[in-house]
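User: Sequence for Porin below. Tokens please.
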Amino acid sequence: MNIKSLLIGSAAALVAVTGARAADAVMAPEPEPVEYVRVCDAYGNGFFYIPGTETCLQISGYVWYQMGAGSYEAGDTPSYHYGTGLQDGWRKSVRARLNIDARSETEWGTLRSYIRLQADWSGTGAYSGLGTNDGPVGIDQAYITLGGFMVGYSESFWVDSKNGGASNYGSHSWSGMYYGYQERALIGYRFDSNGFFGAISLEDDNMTGDGFVPDVVAKLGYTGGWGTVWAKAAFDEDRVPHGITGASLGDSGWAAGIGAQFNIPNMPGSSLRLAGYYNDSDNDYGVSSPLGVDAEWTILASYNQQFSETLGASVAFEYFNDLYSGTGSDISTGVDAYAAELSVIWFPVSQFEVRSELGYTKAENLDGSVSGWLRFTRYF
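Assistant: Structure tokens for Porin:
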């Protein structure tokens, strides 16, 4: 055997052995393609597609720190921001809010689910000011909408029907003056067409009165480039004021309101808002007052001046004519009251807000009270 034959035979043997070992080797699987998150621009900024679905999701919220004070003493009119609570010293507040908003398109319109998680602290420990526990997180709102249909727990349609722009809430400020803010479990429907809007809802009345009979809220209005006008009414099946549970007077009540906002030409964001309210009694849909009871007639005027995209200020005045005696009563006291407010908002940088409010309240036969706060908020 010559050297050439020996080399050829050795190479053949090596190939055979290598092939046998290769047959026994474990092969790594091919990596699956990466599915990157896609931006969803159908509903505004911040939405993205949940991977593998056509559902768009937005996570948003804010954190604030607030410091406030008031002048209330026994015998004074309760203050705008703190009522009759302790006001000798600084009142601090810390809030964390997280919004989870999921939307998708269907043949019946946009399908949406919304959850708001929120926690509040006094700034020194537990929200009540006692102990050192962290502030508890609660579900502040949770609802579903499909097209104009809405079910769940959110603001009453008397306060915010999720359509109608300026017809919602009260003045231009965060606190909004006195306008009857409350949250309710409800079933409702909203529509918008060529500037016209409307809403109607059946709202939980805490099983008062006949139990099976809900409260009813309805609103109609029109909005255009010049501004907005609206009218609304609410039926309180059993007039236990402002959500008090476990009591029944056996009498119904109702409330109504009209309003208009006029946008100031050549001043984007600046507007004048006027609203009037009537209550036949101290009921669930009254706008309340500095004394915590409804008035027969209430008038609200608010003006907002937007000096620039980052700086604005508003002033508001509210008058309460003939306060009721309270606890669902339709008995008038003849007492009048009023409140005034100044609010300033400044965005020194994007998504960081510095906001302040100063309020004054005065009822007949009582001294007035001053209250206010300064707040720092980081949005995301």
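The helical segments are 3-24.
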